[in-house]
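Form 7-S
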Amino acid sequence: MPDPAMPDPAIPDQETLLEFPCRFPVKVMGLAADDFPDLVLALVRVHAPDVRHGDMTTRGSTGGKYLSVTVTFDAVSKAQIDAIYMDLSAHARVLMSL
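Output:
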């Protein structure tokens, strides 16, 4: 099975305006919980294993019900970014990802 973190030569990166490699932020929102940032980091690390806690910022909503987590990583391909978004959106605790 191909590694989703590696560029697929069959899918040209001309489908995006990004130039790889590049720093890419992913913002993820969910219900506020102490373990939510670690969950997001674990999901991103599947496809970007070099991501560290220092690459992540968090922000709670005004009412404290929601938490947003932004993870900035070194993206190597559109396929990698797509795979991250797919895993995030498939997880039950993730309400939204941008």
